[in-house]
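Why predict the complex rather than its parts? Because the way molecules touch one another can change local conformation, and only a joint prediction can capture that. The input here totals 162 residues.
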Amino acid sequence: MIKGLDVKANEKQFIMLKECIDSIRDTQGVLMQTLHEAQKIFGYLPIEVQKFISHELDIPLAEVFGVATFYTQFSIEPKGKHTIGVCLGTACYVKGAQQVLDKLSKELDVAVGGTTSDNLFTLEATRCLGCCGLAPVMMIDGDVYGKLEPKKIPEILSKYKA
Ligand code: FES
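Output of the joint prediction:
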């Protein structure tokens, strides 16, 4: 189970967020901008941060939650040190992306969308990454890996475990 954010221990971050909100309060699209800043400050958007934003902007919590969960650039759960995105677009899918994803899930012992217990990896399925010629493709942080086969996965992961 995910523990809630310790508000007291993150007081400095909340002050930073408050200052940021105060500087953009009257601008258009303030909620999106605030969520972006909050994600930069906290790394993700836990419910405590969403409540704070709701209160500060006088926007219903349901609306803040709705926006935070609708856009894929936002995360309401903490992410691992490295984010792995396996493309499940058509070209990658027909070339075996599902087997690659299954192998990763097994190697890391984590379900898709989850983070490993050591917080090292978050495993995600993504849409087309724009390099279909290399299918099947995955991205780890900013690094692209193409023409993948499940047997190549342990070696690739070992680079990030070091
Ligand atoms: S479908 Fe996977 S990169 Fe385009």
